[in-house]
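Hi, here's the filled form for the chain we discussed.

Project: internal
Contact: R.S.
Residues: 206
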Amino acid sequence: RGYNMTPLGKWVIVFLLFPCAARSIPPHDDVAAVARFIAHNCDWASMATISSHDPVKGQPFSNVFSVSDGPPGSGTGVPYMYLTRMEISVQDLQANPTASLSMSLAQTEYCKSQGYDPQSPLCAHIILSGSVVEVNDTEALVAKQALFSRHPEMMDWPPDHGWFFAKMNITKVWVLDYFGGIKTCTPEEYFSAKPYKTPGLRTTWL
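And the returned structure, exactly as it came back:
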């Protein structure tokens, strides 16, 4: 038998839940902090490259990749990836390293818990523009810790695939997290953003 909740009961639940939800992400006017928050809370991204393969050569080509900017609670803002040159998008990057990475809180429980459609501006998402490059041996240790801490399966991937660590050198950050159109911030603003502390999702990155 169904239970008919009174209007007052519904409002009580809304007020009990809303404070935690409202504090789950940084304020929408703190663009760089929102971008860093999303980058740290997303474990994968859609990477768009310029295809080097017929019959779509020269056209945008999007693919999914696991990413990490650091172990949980210790993000750097740098999106690291574990790649092989056998992969079709990586072959695109060898011809043209420019790319974009899209990440959304729709990948977490946040948007679903708030009833936000993934395309809604309130379901915060970012696009990072730049180029993808292989990291040097010193930075590879940082990338390895960042990725393997959040994607432990990677440690068992076939060793004969020539895996290497890469990162995106960010040139522009695009943020859509509220009404009024997309916002941007510079890489300098992005990397200097202060950690945002709140209950709920991963909330610190330094």
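Let me know if anything looks off before we file it.
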